[in-house]
Amino acid sequence: MSLSLGRLLQPKSIAVIGGGAWCEQVIRQSAKMGYAGDIWPVHPWAEMVCEYPAFKSVAELPSPPDAVFIGVNRHATIALVAELSKLGAGGAVCFASGFSEAVAEDETGNDLQAQLVAAAGAMPILGPNCYGFVNALDGALLWPDQHGCTRVETGVAILTQSSNISINLTMQKRGLPIAYMVTCGNMAQTSQAQIASALIDDPRVTAVGLHIEGFSDLREWEHLAAKAHAKGVPLVALKVGASEQARQATVSHTASLAGSDAGAQAFLERLGVPRLKTLPDLLETLKVLHCYGPLPNGNIASISCSGGEASLIADMAVGKKLNFPKLSADQKTQLRTALGPMVALNNPLDYHTYIWRDQGAMARAWSGMTGGDITMTFSVVDYPTTDPTDWACATNAALKVRKQTAARFGVVATLPELLSQDVAAELMAGGVVPFLGLNEALAATEAAARLRPPQQEPVCLPGTLPATQTLTEAVSKEALAAHGLQVPQSRSVRGDAEISQAVTELHAPFAVKGVGLAHKSEHEAVRLGIAAKDVADIAKAIGTDEILIEEMIVGQVAELLVGVTRDPAHGYVLTLGAGGVLTEILRDTTSLLLPVNADDIVAALNRLNCAPLLHGYRGRPAANMAAIIDAVLAVQSYVLENAEAASEVEINPLLCTPDRAIAVDALIRKA
To answer: Rounded CA gap, 92 and 76, in Å?
Structure first.
């Protein structure tokens, strides 16, 4: 359904239906925020509500309202939504609970939610079980509780399903201008991606922060990412919770390694949306994006008046995709002029306190840490909570740096409580990012530098047929070989006669494997380097009715895992990693969503800890990367051709030699 949310989110008239404290709060909040549009209370017997004349019913309203807050019980909500839709209202916030979120307590919840959606028709609704939204640009609030927002001319939009989290976020005292705070509720009709898509149509929105509990329509998210990139509005996300993966029996290593969250991470990476881990990191990232937009790289500089702070920020950057470039000759000249001969010039820089209170000298020194290929410069300043008067020089110096150099510049407090709301607001107004917390500053800068254009090719949507069979290794290899995967010469045999014939047709030494076991190595059902004369005895020792005799592959420089699992929430998750019997101990893996191309595969392989083995480690020969790519693409080809039925595909190990990449074990689960 195509819905227009513009009237609802930027209303010229607001109707509030219902009585009690919640509805009165909605009216008071908009009035207090200076909303210039019409406010129409609807109450069956009250003459006035919060000093506004009340209307007895929706039918008596002067005209169809643009936005309606419905604060009545769930059954009455459905009837009112139908009436408003027929009237031509712009949209409604459905505050009532007791719909799908309460189905565990009331089995009618799903039916009521379906009735609500049917009643709405083409009229957008938020919720149900929804707090609504704050539009701080126009002062329009369909919001029944406290909030900490103030009027802004531009700012970021934040969307979350959690009303409680949204309230908390409005109370931030970090200097972040919030243009919209929107709660999504049950998303019975209007999804989070649709709401975000509508918000980025407002040119006053500078960035969008998404608190995501789960993805529903993957195509909507792909559309949102493409639209946001085209409009130049960056998206960042805090994704929580595990995806609703089917709880299949975990037969492959891949399924246990990929985990329920790998698909979500891979999907966000495919959308080009950085993922944050905490709410403070999300807010700090939005500040960077509001001021400067996406950052071109992760090169940073830091200047502080303490060696302890210089060491601290250097240590905290370890493990992040951030770099401290060496100072250029021009930077050293400018710094030496400002600081004199007593300061050792490095990045991070401890400039001591020789120039404290000299705003001009401080600005010149701080400016010396900008320029070149540095994408963000931090000045570490902690404002005392007792008397911060003597620290005004730091605020003024930072503002002067930004004004004179136009460089991206941030003032960072090592502890969030050591930078006040007033100072944060003053810095933001001057284009300087007030970072609350060293780790938060680094996480935000790293995230802002990770924004990428979304991949244009859509993900392969997951099939729905349940997996009912696990193919044998031989049959799995045969199916994958038909798509170009290289496999060893082998024979599946039963009994001494077939064994005798097989060993004459193949070249020793052999790998002898039991057939019908999910994890053969755990049952001692894989024997390697077997001579032809010993195969029959080894087969008896393994004990399975059928065995697989396979020519041994030698000369490998690395063993890889190549696996695909079906994730109903995100598509097909391709996992690449260190393979072999220690796969689950090493846990050296990375995940992508299908489809992928050769460049995606190479980039993923290079992220692995075992990547040096592939490129030739300590004089050893390198693996044939082209052959590895072909093997991965062969697995992908099988999955895409069998997308409706395939559930798991795994190669472990893929033996990588200087010439070939050969799958010596394979597994397929499918419908």
So the answer is: 14
